[in-house]
Amino acid sequence: MEVPERIKTLISMNMLTQKKFAESIGISPARLNNYLAGLSKVPQDISIKIADKYNCSLAWLLTGEGEMFNKERTREGKSPMIRLPVVGDIAAGAPMEIVPDEDPRYIEVSFKLLRYPPPYLVFNIAGESMRPFLEPGDVVVCSQDWRNVDIDGKIMAFRTPDGITVKTLREDYPHKTTWLMPINNQYAPKPYCEDDEEIVMIGILDLVIREINRS
């Protein structure tokens, strides 16, 4: 991924149009478009402006190496807020189809609360198979990047022929089987194979948001 792609990632994460992003760093949309299309190289002074404005690491922006965000500024209380759309309901029970809302709800999350890198998917929990860890109405943030993570025992999101579901992935090494395990014992586990084209892992659970005492 080159510098223009990393800039596109920042634009997407902050839910901005290219015009708004260009305005935020003091350049014209046409000039930004030239950078993103690779028609001209991003000058160093513009890269510095982007890094300062969006609290990202200049080294990451220029080379793709290291952490995406500046941890020193995060520790100083300057953690960036990421605005993410809640794309629909995800089943903690039988799989269900995601139907994107025409007017999606958004949440703002501090980056320091997120362990895994972007891009992210955000869902409302429906169903009871992961109770009491996940309750109906919880909002979950799932990262689509779980590289170098041991996912055995992790709660993962899956796309199935019936829709989207979330389960604990559990390796049964003696029997050479992988299972999608509910927490609620009233629901049955299902076998999973990473080569299965019908059940595709799409994210790792990163953050759970629960509203309490709001009524």
- By secondary-structure content and strand pairing, the structural class works out as alpha+beta
Radius of gyration: 20 Å
Sequence of secondary-structure elements? HHHHHHEEEEEEEEE
What's the CATH architecture of the largest domain?
Answer: Ribbon
Percent helix: 10-25%
Q: CATH superfamily of the largest domain, called what? A: Umud Fragment, subunit A
Largest beta-sheet details: 9 strands, mixed
- Mean pLDDT across residues: 83
What is the CATH topology descriptor of the largest domain? Umud Fragment, subunit A
Shape: elongated
Q: Briefly, what CATH class of the largest domain?
A: Mainly Beta
How many structural domains are formed by the residues?
2
| N→C terminal distance | 46 Å
Sheet-strand content, in percent, reads 25-35%
Number of strands: 9
Strand order of the largest sheet: 2-1-3-4-9-5-6-7-8
Residue runs with pLDDT of under 50 for 5 or more positions: 73-77, 95-102
Task: Note the total helix count.
Answer: 6
